[in-house]
From TrEMBL:
Localisation per UniProt entry: Cytoplasm
Name of the protein in its database record: Phenylalanine--tRNA ligase alpha subunit
EC class: ligase
Source organism, top-level taxon: Bacteria
PROSITE patterns linked to this entry: AA_TRNA_LIGASE_II
Amino acid sequence: MREQLEKIKEEALKQIEASDALERLNDIRVAYLGKKGELTSVLKSMKDVSPEERPKVGQMVNEARALIEAKLEETKNVLARKAREEQMKREVIDVTLPAEKGNVGHSHPNTIALEEVERIFVGMGYEVVEGPEVEHDLYNFEKLNIPANHPAKDEQDTFYINKEIVLRTQTSPVQVRTMEQGKLPIRMIAPGRVFRSDEVDATHSPSFHQIEGLVIDKNITFADLKGTLAEFARELFGPETKVKFRPHHFPFTEPSAEVDVTCFKCGGKGCRFCKGSGWIEILGCGMVHPHVLEMSGIDPEEYSGFAFGVGLERIALLKYEIDDMRLLYENDIRFLKQF
Ligand code: DAH
């Protein structure tokens, strides 16, 4: 038995010495000192030892256990220290290295263009207001002089929540919402997302953005509209920019016009950018229809005003010379970083 104990002890110490990981030490502890461990089984066989010998053997077992435990503890400390040192080495920070550049995001071209448009109009005393993207058919169509059977409603086919509620097809309903508040005069722009059931291509998307503009006051004339939009175009595209008003039809303005600007790429001579015409269309506008004023509780005998609607993507595409609208929605950082 004495020999057996010696052997167990030696074997345990050898194994402890040879172990190079903390987990391994635990295995050894279990194998020798655990409930089913080797040393424990020696204790269990004490019944075969003569009564006189028992205390001695018992003492030997205890000594062996103490020794193994001490060795385990010591080795554990050594290994733990080594592991810590290695970790410190791995995680050493060289404060002299150049700092890693933080990955800062980048404003979307739409956002840059919108901020520019807002800057121009706020500079002219306009307020920036917002309206809901989910809108009543009443505001999106009826109160803008587009009754149920009007063909303009077809052109702006949209997504219906139910019969009375739609995803707005234009930011023009914000005109109605602003007028209905009854605070006059009005000088506002209303940027926001709009929706149409259009297929995606280089110039269309089922969801895009517009910026609405509305001015209502006494004695507002078409001259005010012209002057304002000419100034806007010069600010946005450069001081040489000229504007052209082409007669058009919108149900909520009368008279109505579409506005073209001289191509800022060729200065009006005609190029690939303006498809040879020298002009680029940028927005729709007109004098607010008296019936629209009336429906919003404003007396058209006393007040008049003008309105306009700009496609934000259109401005961004033109200003930054982007030839495919889809690029604006893909959020590829390599693309966005260029502006
Ligand atoms: N809402 C029109 C559209 O989406 C654009 C527009 C035209 C807005 C004339 C106006 C306006 O305010 O006066 O096509």
